[in-house]
């Protein structure tokens, strides 16, 4: 005989809710490693579209950071929204993009121009609200911090590296939507200044639309030439726009937590 005894929860996780000056509520999903806290605090990986990817990143991280041969453990922070769906279309189009007008939306029928353009507001939220709140509550490493995003989230990751690179040391961009706003990031990519060393990995699926693959590789090639940037590019065979994410997460976690090595500990 079977009986229901409860609902499944990922161990050692908590959920916060917050509102940002009238913006719809955001849900913040937080995974805290067990075991001894490193002297400098835990590395922390911020995950955009947290409703979709937080659980996957957390469980992969929990498996890949198990001793004795795992990567160093990390706090995982998923930034999501008040929805039971994987994505909140309206909110992510606002949070992850620069403003466009109706003529620039092209084939996109699911969003209005007025619902775009909140990326500076979103990064202010990260810098001045979320990160300070997390620092008060959890032992975060002061500098060893990564930002992961896919698609529009990947666009946000590259934008953040160019426009607000004081926030993170490592950038994990999956299938970045470089086409947004006429490819505006291509105009900015040669004009930003880095005061400190930064790292970025860009991943894309082999079977994605041609411009997605070409743009991802082009951005990698430009960043790879820049001083103070360590850049890596992966095109994952046999994967499309969504199926690329699970294998890219393996590459991204390795890049962030073990500097690309197969094991974080000997």
From TrEMBL:
It comes from the Bacteria. GO terms for molecular function: hydrolase activity. It holds the Pfam family Esterase. Keywords: Hydrolase. The keyword Flavoprotein does not apply. PANTHER family: SIDEROPHORE TRIACETYLFUSARININE C ESTERASE (PTHR40841), SIDEROPHORE-DEGRADING ESTERASE (EUROFUNG) (PTHR40841:SF2). Belongs to the esterase D family. This is Alpha/beta superfamily hydrolase. It comes from Alkalicoccobacillus murimartini.
